[in-house]
Specification:
Blueprint: H1 2-12, E1 17-24, E2 30-33, H2 41-44, H3 47-50, H4 55-62, E3 68-69, H5 70-73, H6 76-81, H7 83-90, E4 97-106, E5 109-117, H8 125-165, E6 168-173, E7 177-181, H9 185-192, H10 205-216, H11 219-225, E8 227-232, E9 235-243, E10 253-261, H12 276-285, H13 291-298, H14 302-316, H15 321-330
Helix pairs in contact: 12-13, 12-14, 13-14
């Protein structure tokens, strides 16, 4: 935005330099200078040391949203004695005239725009009025840029978490305008839902309808209805709906997909210590089945199941069925 807008803006209000800074509140305030060609970059690189004595910042903070000329900030005598002016001359920048404004982009986020001239030619009241007229357009453009960047940052974070915590996700505008999905989300959906159960966009119809309902609910109702479970064979697909924070009134939602087996996974470190028969029995026991259920499911006698169980406990130094489940859960990958 700065690169494309600087030249036409300079024709409207001639200036030798233009600086733009994003300011975020907090202890301490953060100043992010957005340097492009035409900004006094030498001076801005030293800004941290100059900030306590920056008469421009001190002035526009007191009158947020108002375009101020240097004559409204400080007397000429004080200006030429200021550290900002003195250091600009040492660097060959010569900031003789200044006009600036601090715009509130959203609560706690501000944008400072400053025009500099390196010769004694004051900004006129007409130029001040032009810049004041444009402040609303600046605010909207910068806010839109900020909105575009924020979801991107959030989706990158969501992607990093999905890799660490083994889930897939889809981000969409309710009820079905998709904005982003993780790499394996499509394959997971196609595995669980036949084509007849999906919309043209590829989302399961149940999810679209659930999201429509959630959008109309209050916060308490949502907390009771934000999860769906799909089960088949020995797996469960847990689907969680989450409204994402966003400055716009119509917020995006994330659908988190957690595929998980019905049983606790058997720890990989113990697999080689058991025979194939013992491993089948141990895996069945991790579904919290009793001896009769394990025997029925695996087509074994109760005696065989008990024999395998004793050998499993002895080889792995477990105290019994409860300890087997505890140790397996303890060795799961931590979130």
């Amino acid at each position: 935005m700065i690169r494309e807008g600087r030249k036409p803006f300079a024709r409207l209000i001639p200036a030798d330099y233009m600086g733009m800074c994003i300011v975020t509140e907090g202890p301490p305030r953060r100043y992010q200078w957005l340097n492009e060609a035409g900004a006094p970059n030498k001076l801005l690189s030293q800004y941290a040391s100059l900030q306590p004595n920056d008469f421009v910042l001190q002035s526009v903070i007191r009158r947020r949203g108002s375009v101020l000329r240097d004559s409204e900030m400080i007397s000429r005598r004080e200006l030429v004695r200021s550290p900002l002016y003195q250091q600009s001359r040492e660097m060959g920048v010569n900031l003789e005239q200044v006009m600036a404004v601090l715009l509130e982009i959203q609560p706690g986020v501000y944008c400072g725009i400053t025009l500099y001239r390196d010769r004694r030619r004051a900004f006129t009241q007409r130029e001040q009025a032009r810049m004041q007229f444009l402040t609303r357009d600046f605010t909207v453009a910068i806010r839109n840029s900020h909105f575009i960047a924020s979801p991107s940052t959030g989706e990158h974070l969501l992607g990093a978490l999905s890799q660490r915590q083994n889930f897939e996700f889809i981000v969409l505008e309710p009820p079905s305008v998709e904005r982003h999905r993780s790499p394996n989300a499509t394959a997971l959906i196609e595995t669980w839902f036949p084509k007849v159960e999906r919309t043209r966009s590829g989302l399961p119809r149940d999810w679209v309808e659930q999201l429509r309902r959630l959008v109309r609910m209050d916060t308490h109702e949502r907390s009771l209805n934000d999860t769906l479970e799909h089960t088949r064979d020995e797996e469960t697909l847990l689907v969680t709906f989450m409204e994402l924070p966003h400055p716009r009134s119509r917020r995006p939602w994330a659908i988190l997909l957690h595929p998980r087996p019905e049983s606790i996974p058997f720890p990989a470190k113990h697999v080689k210590e058991l025979t194939p028969g013992e491993l089948k029995v141990a895996t069945a026991m991790l579904r919290n089945w009793d001896t009769d259920r394990v025997a029925d499911e695996l087509k074994l006698s109760r005696h065989t199941v008990k024999t395998h169980a004793k050998r499993i406990y002895k080889k792995l130094a477990f105290d019994g069925h409860t300890d087997l489940m505890y140790q397996a859960a303890r060795l799961l990958k931590q979130i």
